[in-house]
Fold this protein.
Amino acid sequence: MLTRARLIATVFASAAVAGWSCTSHLTYYQDVQPIIEAKCEGCHNPEGIGPFSLQTADEVIAQKSLIASVVPAKVMPPWPPANNCNAYSPDRSLSDAQITTITEWINQGAAIGNANSQHTAAPTVGMSRIDYSMQMPQPFTPLLSPDDYRCFLLDWPATTGKYVTGFGVLPGDAHIVHHSIAYVARPAQVATYQALDGADGHPGWTCFGGPNGTSTPNAKGGGFGSLATQWLGAWAPGAPGNDFPAGTGVLVDPGSKIILQVHYNTSSTPPAPDQTTVNVEVADSVQKPAYVMPFTDPSWLQGNMAIPANAPDTMYNYSVDPTPYMGLLTEQLINDDAPFTVYMSALHMHTRGSSIQGRIDKADGTTECQLDIPQWSFNWQGSYTFSDPETFSPGDQLYLECHWNNTAANQPFINGVQVVPHELNWGETTEDEMCLEVLYVTQ
Ligand code: HEC
């Protein structure tokens, strides 16, 4: 007997043969849920930093008009790199096909579909294992609103040298931990940071642009501290943590400490105690020891990076072939005058930055883009691992270009008051700027 459902199915089947557009009738469970699960739920869950949850069909449908505006505009998911520069893994962005699926589904009326046809999301790649979990020694409740950048000193448990081969962060209160960056304080640097720790009567210390964030405002040339402190990794919500490129790792000596910089944002939930954990995977040896190398124009650190008040677009750029000095730049890990491999890039400016790009200008005239952030956002910093590592050879140039907008409209708020534009220069505080690329390199 031909039931009504059977009849409809038959009509749809012949439509499929005829190629009618109604064959592409999209449903939540069949087409949209796998994308939302993989690319949105890491932040949009009841505990996450997203302002609402997107875990159920009803929750997604309730937000469909906002989703229809932010997804095609590429505002969500937050993914600052330009897509014509380089390929990264992991990559939080949506493909054009995924954007079309979401917008078409909403245009077609956001049908829910059959929960039984639910797809299972592709497994997210995380760290292969966790060897050390290092928690903030005490809970901390953000003091500054809406953004507080705070550094904490975590004990490093190993008593012999270990290579960090994977990195992840487990937020204590995922409502407010917006992003975080971990650094290594070498044994000789530990005392400096211990002196900052707790000095204002609260755990840790305020550290806006990097671990030395409490240095005097506008201290010209005072910003070298953070450059001498090794980056270990950067993390944003939704990232399960990841292994470093196979066979590589960053040496951490016994007696070191980990500095965890946490960006707290309390614009959608009130400040609450947080105790975040850094997870690492370690190895006793690796094939290729890695170095996290800062790259910038040394003369900017001397105060030669003046950004005039009210200027809408001030640009500084710098290029250099660092191969003659690689030993010096990497504590002798990489040989002078030899090719080296670049796996990862992170770019860093402060709040008046408008765009930043790092690339390799090859000796043969070609260019290899590393990372291009066309609309800089201080609140969405990260490190990006290249899908294919790049080789830098003697004769090539590393190139860095930064732009700033120092007009009244692009000033940060300090304690609720927007700063009046003034001349900026290199330094560590909100009142200063930086232009820096951080590269993960091996021989
Ligand atoms: C890395 C974390 C993160 C991921 C991943 C993410 N969001 Fe968001 N989303 C946020 C935060 C935080 C906000 C609040 C606004 C802000 O801070 O930019 C937000 C805001 C929104 C808004 C409200 C925008 C407005 O104008 O009010 C929508 C809609 C949204 N997200 C949809 C999505 C969708 C759809 C995805 C996946 C395709 C996604 N988000 C992935 C963190 C995230």
Q: What stands out?
A: The pocket of heme C is lined by residues 39-40, 42-44, 49-51, 63, 66-67, 70-71, 76-78, 92, 94, 236-238 (CB under 6 Å). Confidence is low (pLDDT under 50) at residues 1-23, 214-224.
